[in-house]
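Students often ask why we bother encoding 3D structure as a string. The short answer is that it lets us treat folding as translation between two languages. Here is a chain of 447 residues written in the first language.
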Amino acid sequence: MMAARQAPLLLALCFAAVVASGVVLDGGATHARAFDGVGALSAGASSRLLADYPADQRAEVLDLLFTPKYGASLQVLKVEIGGDVQSTDGTEPSHARTRDELENGGANCARGYEMWLLSEAKSRNPDIITYGLSWGVPGYVGNNSYFSPENVEYQTAWLTCIQKLTGITIDYMGVWNEKQWGNIEYIMQLRSAFDTAGFTTTKLVLLDGDLDDSFLDALDSNQSFSDAVDVIGVHYPCDVESAAVQASGKRFWASEDLSTPADWGGAGCWGRVVNQNFIRMNQTSTIMRSLVWSTYPNLDCYGAGLMYANEPWSGHYDINPTIWTTAHTTQFTEPGWLYLSTASGGSGRLPNGGTYVTLRSDSGDTDFDWTVVIETLEGACAKNGGCLRDGTATAPQDYTFTLAGGLRSDSYASVWRTNRTHWFVRDSSLNVKSGSFTVRVYPGARR
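And here it is in the second language, the structure alphabet:
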């Protein structure tokens, strides 16, 4: 990415990739899509032990996750709206455990640790995008009927409580994790209740699970319903057929992905997925499960997180390579930047295995800061049979890029590299004053 005088080209040569000679990166090309950020989720008790860490070590972990231009530099934080239900590796507490609490102003979203985590993230990055989603609700809600007016009240009460106690207005709300999406009437009631309570800027994400034909049909046939839905979010998409989503004009996210141990294999999966979700499906945000593995080691999905922090009694934590395969994108971009499209050649597959994506700033008509992320990573994901690409990079390759359409070429571009043995290492800068540059990329790396 180019910034100021020394442009981080984020050739985040983090995952070595091979780009065909003669690729033109046109910052003025049409079909660019807004980048919505890379993030992680805290849910299913995955963050349970973090709050119990000694203050100094806890702050270090939080800095590595949320401080901009440092560590993972996360741009999105998604949290579970606790419901007193088992939601993977534990139960997260509800803000309204009884009907009396819900109806008489007794909602308490300070229970548990998600409100605390939201506050810690916002204190480090005031611009971080926030997102809430229920895995379940207490049985009294709707008398065990999830899509009920009482659940609309329950969801709105959580938004109200978070805003009241922290000053945070949640940016996005989902409906129900990996369950039915509901019906048009319920979604319209939810949208109306949020608006009436003053949360007009809080946007709705559906489906938080698999694509559903009935949802897509409703989106196509009911304009009011379509207007209420801002984002289509699916889980572990890999290369899901998305023609109907593209036709809808909605932003398309991987609203949960990875769920793979944070060793080098997991880091390789993650580095591929962040690029490939855009290349394959025009997905503009990818959210990792989980933020941090901070629960006990004998539970399901062990190690699924950006880093490990599950020993509060000693203060020990592990800085895993997934932190650094994330950083190649997040430290050199901002939500609101634009992806250069595959149609324009600004992003795409590498002929000999791997991918590259280009993002540019969204300010002014020229002199765009920019970032190129190239990856030739391996490492199987835990879902979708590993979510592997066709073709594997087996040898170093040189690729030449030409800058056009207002992308800055007045200085140098910084190059960063990550592979199995070297994590987020800064290489020599590239002189881009001629308007082009050539980079050598190696198998199993991200740049």
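Translate back mentally: The CA atoms of residues 23 and 93 lie 52 Å apart. Keep this in mind for the problem set.
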